[in-house]
Amino acid sequence: MSKKIITIGEAMGLFVADEVGRLEDVQKFTRSIAGAELNVSVGLARLDHEVYYATKIGSDPLGESIIKFIEKERIHNDFVYRSKKRLTGLQLKEKSIEGDPSVSSFRKNSAASKFSLATIQEVDFSIFDFVHLSGIFLALSPETKAVSHYFAEEGRRNGACITFDPNLRPNLWGSKEEMIKNINELATKCDIVLPGISEGKILTGYNEPEDIANFYLEGNAKYVVIKLGEEGAYVKGNDKEGKYINGFKVAEIVDTVGAGDGFAVGVVSGLAEGLSIEESVTRGNAIGAIQLLSTSDNEGLPNRGMLDNFLNTSKHQKI
C-alpha cells in the first residue's frame, strides 16, 4: 500500500546548455523543470507513492509548463497556487564535462518566495505519513521560513515522519552564521536529517560522520544519514549504532545535480515501504548513483522496474 507524502518547495524553469562553455557564451538550451523538492516528488511518484507537492508559480508560460509536468508525473497539485503579481523562477545550467556544473538562478521575489501561511488553504496533515522538507525553501524568505516550520510542526503533531535535507545554498542566506542557525533550528523539529558530509562539517563544526550524527541526534532526530558521495553513506539512530552503507560505482558521471534528491527519494520510499533504515539508505545510494547518469535534474529518476534492475545488476559494483 502506497504512503501519502507531502513536500513543499520552489519549482523553476530549467534551461540546460546544449554545448559546453560559459553560460554567457551558450546559444542554445534545452528546457526542463527544476526544484529539489519537486525532484523528490517525482522520484517518489515514479515508485508509486501518493505524493502531494505544494508550491506557488507565476501566471506565465513557465508556470503553466510546471503544472503540466506535475500532472504528467501523477503528483497531486491540490496545493499548487498561482500568483498574478509575481513570476515563476528559472535557472540556467552549464553543460559540464567533469565536476559540478555551474548554475545561475533567477528567483529573487519569485512567486514561490512569497508562499506564506496566508497562501495555504487548510491542509489536513493527519492524512500524510511523511513530510519532506529542504533547506532551500527555508532560505527563500521570511514567509517560506515560517511555512517550513509550520509543515514540520503540524506534520509531527499529526504523527507524520518529518525528513529534512539541509541542501545548503549559501548565496540564499545573508551570512554563513544565519544559514547555520536557521538550518539547525528546523532540524530539531525533524525525525530524519540527511546532510552531505561537507554540509555536516559546516553546520556542526565536526569532521567525523559519527560526531555530526550525534549533534543532530542530541537535537531530537531519530536517525541521521550522512551522504558520503561515491563512498556511500553513514547512518546512525538514537536506537542504532553508527554504520557505513556502501555506495555504487557508475561507469561515467554525466551530471551531479539532483543526486542528493535521488538519495532522499530512496530513503523516504524505503522507509515508507517498511524497509529497515539500512535497506532504505542502500536504495538511496542506488538512486543517487542513477541520477549521476542524466543531465536533467529529474529525468533519470527511476520507476520500480528500472530501480530493481539497477540493484540486481549493480551489486557487484558496490564500493
Essential attributes:
319 residues, alpha/beta, 9-stranded mixed beta sheet, 4-stranded mixed beta sheet, 10 helices, 13 strands
Could you provide a short overview of the structure?
With 319 residues, this protein is an alpha/beta fold. It has one domain: 3-Layer(aba) Sandwich (UDP-N-acetylmuramoyl-L-alanine:D-glutamate ligase), CATH 3.40.1190.
Explain how this protein is built.
The protein has about 325 residues and is an alpha/beta fold. It has one domain (about 5-245): Ribokinase (UDP-N-acetylmuramoyl-L-alanine:D-glutamate ligase, 3-Layer(aba) Sandwich), CATH 3.40.1190. Helices cover about 35% and strands about 20% of the residues. The chain contains ten helices and 13 strands. The strands form two sheets. The chain has a nine-stranded mixed beta sheet with strand order 5-4-1-8-9-10-11-12-13, sandwiched between helices. The longest helix is centred in the middle third of the chain and has 16 residues, at about 140-155. About 45% of the residues are buried.
Which secondary structure elements does this structure contain, and how are they paired or packed?
Elements: E1 4-8, E2 12-20, E3 29-34, H1 36-46, E4 50-58, H2 61-72, E5 80-83, E6 90-95, E7 103-106, E8 130-134, H3 135-139, H4 142-157, E9 161-165, H5 176-187, E10 192-193, H6 197-204, H7 209-217, E11 223-227, E12 233-237, E13 240-245, H8 259-272, H9 277-291, H10 304-314
Parallel strand pairs: 1-4, 1-8, 2-6, 4-5, 8-9, 9-10, 10-11
Antiparallel strand pairs: 2-3, 6-7, 11-12, 12-13
